[in-house]
Specification:
about 250 residues; mainly beta; Jelly Rolls; 5-stranded antiparallel β-sheet; 15 strands; binds magnesium ion
């Protein structure tokens, strides 16, 4: 009984000491000068936002609807996709197109439209894709009333990550992707030390949230991790008449 009493007294004493210390800390912090926790040294640069989804002042405009000067085919020949009414459209079987500039980490805005004439099903309906650094695909696909494997549907990281939602608009309507991409890092021995990450917002809805990229996009087999530096953005020719417009990028 005596032991129990002593234990209770000890606990009460300990609690009282903790509370006293906390009150003392609080009183001390109340005496701090608020300026001690202010950071002034690095002022964010001024960026003028665009109207709606138009490019902000520090963006590189990759496609403004008038020409394909910022793109090329893989073999270095001029991009042949069709331009009409401010949009570019895949010219089937001419091949993917690539930005002439290469990029590391970035924020990319891109708008796309699946053909209004619905043709095919599953992966065969309005298929294209945006390959970050020409290796990692954010899928473009018409998944409006169209079923396919979940890790291959619209806004999937193809065969790696199922999107958090199907935010597709009907075919023929313009859709937006806002992609925030952090490139993987490799050491001098070519080993990946930090994975790539991607966040995708589809029509204003978060569908990939800081998703880890497991490696290259592979149709068959597992992702691969081969060291690389900055790379172009690649738009896929999957044989469907997918269109793109209003493409701009901000390096991060
Ligand atoms: Mg694709």
């Amino acid at each position: 009984m005596k032991k129990e009493l002593l234990f209770i007294v000890f606990i009460c004493f300990a609690v009282q000491r903790i509370l006293t210390a906390q009150i003392a800390d609080q009183k001390a912090s109340e005496k701090w000068d608020p300026r001690l926790t202010e950071a002034w040294e690095v002022a964010p640069k001024i960026v003028t936002p665009g109207n709606g989804t138009s490019a902000p002042s520090d963006a590189i405009v990759l496609f403004d609807g008038t020409n394909l000067n910022e793109f090329t085919h893989e073999n270095g020949t001029p991009a042949q996709w069709d331009i009409k009414d401010g949009a570019m459209t895949v010219k089937p079987n001419t091949g993917a197109i690539f930005t002439k500039k290469v990029f590391g980490d970035y924020q990319l805005h891109i708008e796309w439209r699946a053909p209004v004439v619905v043709k095919g099903e599953g992966q065969g309906r309005g298929n294209s894709g945006i390959f970050m650094q020409s290796r990692y695909e954010v899928q473009v696909l018409d998944c409006y009333n169209n079923t396919t494997y979940s890790n291959g549907q619209t806004a999937s990281i193809y065969k790696q990550s199922i999107p958090l939602a199907n935010a597709c608009r009907p075919p023929g309507e313009w859709q937006t992707y806002d992609i925030i991409y952090t490139a993987p890092r490799f050491n001098i021995d070519g080993m990946k030390t930090v994975p790539g990450y991607v966040t995708v917002i589809h029509n204003g809805i978060v569908v990939q949230n800081h998703t880890e990229i497991k490696g290259t996009t592979e149709y068959i087999g597992l992702p691969k991790n081969i060291a690389h530096g900055d790379g172009p953005i690649q738009l896929q020719d999957h044989g469907d008449l997918v269109s793109y417009r209003n493409i701009w990028i901000r390096k991060i």
